[in-house]
């Protein structure tokens, strides 16, 4: 019998559905999203299905992770096409709460992550961000009770923050990082790519090219800071406004001076026009 996609909008309804899975001893994988689904999200769903018998996708544009000057009001919302894509992907359950359900009147508890959340990367430019992410993800984990949770590696600092939070709070979920899905020219898939003009879209893959070239130079034992300096100049001269281009320890996100200091991750964030792009690559 074919499984039918169901949309849950209240915590009691969600808990009843999850309890049915648990009574059947079925494993659950959660794919947290803010909607505006693209092929990268659907790859997370495919990876979730490989690990668990039931897949739950959350769709919630979380106001707690947007600053007042950011794009909460204009963030892409494509509910109809999202549901069709998830139905085609044979997802069993969509958790789509309202802001009032997630943050009801009197809500007064927030998580304040440290460690990788205080690495001087995204947190330097979006100081509000990881508190909002950690709080909403902790709620999603307790609401959906997944065995696995799938996060894309494109948001690498977020992946490290969520992984650390789940470990520190003894949450019974294994956080899985899924490699970034890219366009043929290397641009990382992102819901915000729709903001790019034609000219900006043509230029955007430069970030990935700089990451790849820099990683190759570091593998040849060139001095990391010299490599970063070259990469920063390339980005600055190509029409971007650079926020950061850094080499960090792949697990702790602490600054790193050489490959001997541990596994290296290169991370970049830059604006082109009105669109802010982030990307990263392992060395």
Question: What can you see in these coordinates?
Answer:
The protein is α/β, with parallel strands linked by helices. It has 2 domains: 6-178, Rossmann fold; 191-282, Pantoate-beta-alanine ligase, C-terminal domain (Pantoate--beta-alanine Ligase, Chain: A,domain 2). Helix content is 37%, strand content 19%. It has helices at 11-23, 39-51, 79-88, 99-102, 122-125, 129-144, 156-168, 198-203, 206-219, 224-236; strands at residues 6-8, 28-33, 54-59, 93-95, 148-152, 174-178, 241-249, 264-272, 275-282. It has a 6-stranded parallel β-sheet with strand order 1-4-3-2-5-6, sandwiched between helices. The protein has a 3-stranded antiparallel β-sheet with strand order 7-8-9, with helices on one face. Strand 2, helix 2 (39-51) and strand 3 (54-59) form a beta-alpha-beta unit. The chain is globular.
Search tags:
19% strand, 37% helix, 2 domains, three-stranded antiparallel beta sheet, 9 strands, six-stranded parallel beta sheet, alpha/beta, 283 residues, Pantoate--beta-alanine Ligase, Chain: A,domain 2, Rossmann fold
Q: State the helical fraction.
A: 25-40%
Number of E-type strands: 9
So what's the overall shape?
A: globular
Taking Cα atoms only, what radius of gyration do you get, to the nearest Å? 19 Å
Residue share in β-strands: 15-25%
Terminal-residue CA separation: 46 Å
Low-confidence stretches: none
SSE series: EHEHEHEHHHEHEHHHEEE
CATH superfamily of the largest domain, by name, is HUPs
Q: What's the architecture of the largest domain, going by CATH?
A: 3-Layer(aba) Sandwich
Largest sheet: 6 strands, parallel
What is the average per-residue confidence, as pLDDT, rounded to a whole number? 96
Q: How are strands sequenced across the largest beta sheet?
A: 1-4-3-2-5-6
Structure classification: alpha/beta
Q: What is the count of helical runs? A: 10
* CATH T-level topology of the largest domain: Rossmann fold
CATH class of the largest domain: Alpha Beta
């Amino acid at each position: 019998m074919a499984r039918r996609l169901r949309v849950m909008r209240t915590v009691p309804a969600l808990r009843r559905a999850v309890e049915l899975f648990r009574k059947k001893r079925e494993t659950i994988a959660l794919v947290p999203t803010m909607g505006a689904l693209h092929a990268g999200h659907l790859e997370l769903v495919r990876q979730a299905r490989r690990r668990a018998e039931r897949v739950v996708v959350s769709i919630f544009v979380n106001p707690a992770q947007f600053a007042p000057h950011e794009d909460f009001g204009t963030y892409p919302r494509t509910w109809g096409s999202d549901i069709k894509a998830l139905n085609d992907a044979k997802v069993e359950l969509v958790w789509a709460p309202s802001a009032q359900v997630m943050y009801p009147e009197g809500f007064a508890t927030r998580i304040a992550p440290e460690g990788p959340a205080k690495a001087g990367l995204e947190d330097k430019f979006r100081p509000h961000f990881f508190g909002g992410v950690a709080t909403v993800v902790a709620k999603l984990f307790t609401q959906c009770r997944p065995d696995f949770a799938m996060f894309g590696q494109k948001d690498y600092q977020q992946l490290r923050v969520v992984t650390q939070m789940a470990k520190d709070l003894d949450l019974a979920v294994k956080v899985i990082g899924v490699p970034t899905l890219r366009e043929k020219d290397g641009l990382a898939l992102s819901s915000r790519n729709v903001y790019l003009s034609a000219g900006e879209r043509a230029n955007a893959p430069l970030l990935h090219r700089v990451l790849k070239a820099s990683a190759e130079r570091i593998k040849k034992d060139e001095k990391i800071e010299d490599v970063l300096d070259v990469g920063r100049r390339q980005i600055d001269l190509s029409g971007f406004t650079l926020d950061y281009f850094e080499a960090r320890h792949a697990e702790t996100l602490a600054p790193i001076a050489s490959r001997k200091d541990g596994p290296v991750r290169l991370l970049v964030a830059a604006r082109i026009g009105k669109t802010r792009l982030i990307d990263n690559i392992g060395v």
